[in-house]
Amino acid sequence: MKLDNSKKLFVSGDEAVALGVRLARPHVISAYPITPQTIVVERLSEMTEDKSLDADFMHVESEHSALSAAMGVSAVGARAFTATSSQGLLYMAEVLSYCSGGRYPVVMMNANRALALPWSIFGDQSDSLLLLGSGWIQCYVEDAQEALDMMIQAYKIAEHPRVLTPFMVNLDGFILTHTYELVDVPLQSEVDEFLPPFTTPNKMSLENPMNLGFSSTPADNLEFKYQQHKAMLDSLPVIEEVDAEFGDKFGRYYGGVLESYQTDDAELVMITVGTITGTTRVVVDKLRDAGKKVGLIKLRYLRPMPEEALVEAIADAKAVGVIDKDISFGHEGTIFTNVNSALSKSNLNPKKHNFICGMGGRNISKNDIIEMYQLLEDSVNGKDIPAVKFINLNTCISEKE
Amino acid sequence: MKKTKDMLSQDGNRPVQQEFPKRNHISEYPTGPGFTAGHLAEINAGWRVFKPVIDLEKCIACYKCYMVCPDGVIFKQGEKEVAVDYDYCKGCGVCAHECPVKAITMIKDERD
Amino acid sequence: MQNLQKITPRNIDQKEYFYGHKACAGCGCALAVRLALKVIGEGAFSILPAGCMSAVGFIYPQMAFVNNSMISTFPGAASLASGVAAGNKALKREGSKTVVFAGDGGTADIGIQALSGMIDRDDDVLYICYDNEAYMNTGIQKSGLTPFGAKTTTTPAGENLRGTQTAKKQLFEIIAAHNIKYAATASIGYYQDYINKVQKAISIKGATFIHVAASCPTGWGTPTETSVEIMKEAVDCGLWFLAEYENHKFTLNKDPKAFGSIADYIKAQGRFKHLTDDDIVSIEKSRDELWERMRKNWK
Q1: pLDDT at residue A400 above 90?
Q2: Of B110 and A3, the one with more pLDDT
Q3: Chain-wide mean pLDDT for chain C?
Q4: pLDDT digits over C212-261, tens only?
Q5: Is residue B94 a contact partner of residue B104, using CB atoms and an 8 Å limit?
Q6: Complex ipTM, two decimals?
Q7: Which pLDDT does position A401 carry in this prediction?
């Protein structure tokens, strides 16, 4: 299917990513196919074939090479894109830390998918959450329009001189990657005005030869790590600025690091990441109609972790629920850990509950979310609710027969 | 930050040692682990026990020593001469061993 | 192909591009890198995976490469190089040439997948494998290119095993099987042959490969001054060979009428000290089989 430059197109999430990437004008795309990311690379290949995208498509033999090559492109000062999912993301894990430590602002799309074993091609967020500490900015989008828009914003944020940090845009596998929506496609000329060409001091060139990726003894290593951490923290205001500028130019503002929905007087607040936000928003409306003081925070970024904004948004909530489509086995959901840490550093002390659900593609229904809000309410009312609870298991898990 | 071309020997063929003061502020570090190509903060002379001494009377300017030096410290000088950059010679002795006319002798280095 | 002027000690670029590094005294691999860069010149973008040459060349603030250089991940030298070449092409950076310097383990073991992809795509990269026949940087462990009989820290010589029990992979033929435009073997003992192969390789646009045998006095237990001589002996005794592959054909560049002594080559090295006369006979037998096959098929 050809993706033309119409203003409005009916496309899947993956296709929206391809449209966004085309508008960002990468010099080189290096990617390896993996379900449910494949449509992205198929469309980008077609775009390079029909010359609607002037880029080199590198057919690499693995995800490790996909990111390794993308890093090489960035290290000479050119713009690179790659995309992957699940096992592929883990296979490139070594290169993730290499790329962030090297300060190469590569942009990657990750189709969130379950990790083996058992094998599953369906969606959850175990893959990217396992790599939260890899030094990449991690953004999670809710729909195809946001996916398209974030490909453009991603380059602007990642390549910002104070940031120079690689950027991962996460889309829930199938739920978003393969669902069709009407999207508004910005004009190339407007994107060109918004997104300047990539420049960096940290590159190899004939005019100014450099030795990159060097080793550093304990005498200097910690300074480089501090610098990397500082750059990630500095991206917080840059994310706000870029989203605001994007809003002014294209009419779509996403709230920066997070979006609050009905939180002003909310007593029960659910924290969501990715597509589950849409379902939760509908549930919030329904429960509000029934007079419940419920709200929702859509966390758009998990790295940098927007602790301040999150604490401010939670405000006077009596209970906070965190939906995790992953679990750190033997502990709790990773988003929960991160939210808990932010809360523990604040003066807030709401009840905190973690809902583990949706793993391996298990559906999360409106009723499931209504149940979660009910559990939060029960907790506020003094009922003993476990801190970490699996939702929508199909079998009884009680030890007693 | 100095460029590579400003850190070379007079003939422009080799980098020479640069002063590298201690960094007092994080801003003095490069953005990420990348630095000027050919920036040398240290010399390697301390590795050496023996040093090569070239007898230019015997030398036939075949440049074999120049070709086989793993550290590249033997260089051409003038029309038919070779010399050694003792800052970076490690004293391996390949030059003396390979010299077809035995013009290079390894002698105990008497540095402090 | 254009006619190339032969590179000699008299006309080779006098600039040094690999300098002030921390390689062991007498390092044969440092020589292989140094000479190749003198042929490629200041347009070289060199990529080095984990290994001796990256470990000794980039210790901040001692930057031993005068040309653009970068350390890659261990398995990702070829893929990083592909990216660098693609980036330079996209930026229309005329006069740049991407070259990989990777060790035997980084090439024949952990890096072989990315290398295969690089050749498959015919990316404009010269890949040079400097082969010192073990993982030397980590302390002399067996690699896929460690020869039969060599003692390493993971193939010790004791009562039950006498060092490495497997033969070197035929890396050159594995590379040639990709129908690569140009591949060659070389030795720092025959450096004139080596530098001219480097020149030939970079005159070709696309993926090219050189497998250069390079000594390691530290890992082999040899005196530092014999590093070049011993690599000449390796070729002369037939345990290494000088060959090329281009236009789908192999050529033996050097076909000695009589081999030098394998026993002399082996007995000069600590890593083979434990080998018996029977072992040496068996090594001679494998050499003869290899040469019989090469002479039959590569002429």
Answers
A1: no
A2: B110
A3: 97
A4: 999 999 999 999 999 999 999 999 999 999 999 999 999 999 999 999 99
A5: no
A6: 0.97
A7: 55
The letter for the amino acid at A55 is: A
pTM above 0.90, yes or no: yes
Cross-chain residue pair B20–C61, CB shorter than 8 Å: yes
Instruction: Determine the average pLDDT of the residues in A245-265.
Output: 97
What is the C-alpha to C-alpha distance for residues A157 and A168, in angstroms, rounded to an integer? 11
Q: How many CB atoms lie within 10 A of CB B11?
A: 11
User: What confidence score (pLDDT) does residue A275 get?
Assistant: 98
The confidence score (pLDDT) of residue B78 equals: 87
d(CA B27, nearest CA chain C) in Å: 16
C288 shares contact with chain B (CB less than 8 Å): no
Q: Which of A71, A162, A207, A208 to mutate to test the interface with B (most CBs of B within 10 A)?
A: A208
| A209 contacts C83? CB cut-off 8 A | no
CA distance B58 to chain A (A): 40
- Tell me the β-bridge partners of A180: A12
Nearest CA in chain A to C49: A213
Output the pLDDT for position B112.
Answer: 60
236-255 of A, contacting C, C-beta below 8 A: none
pLDDT band with cut points at 50, 70 and 90 for residue C1:
low
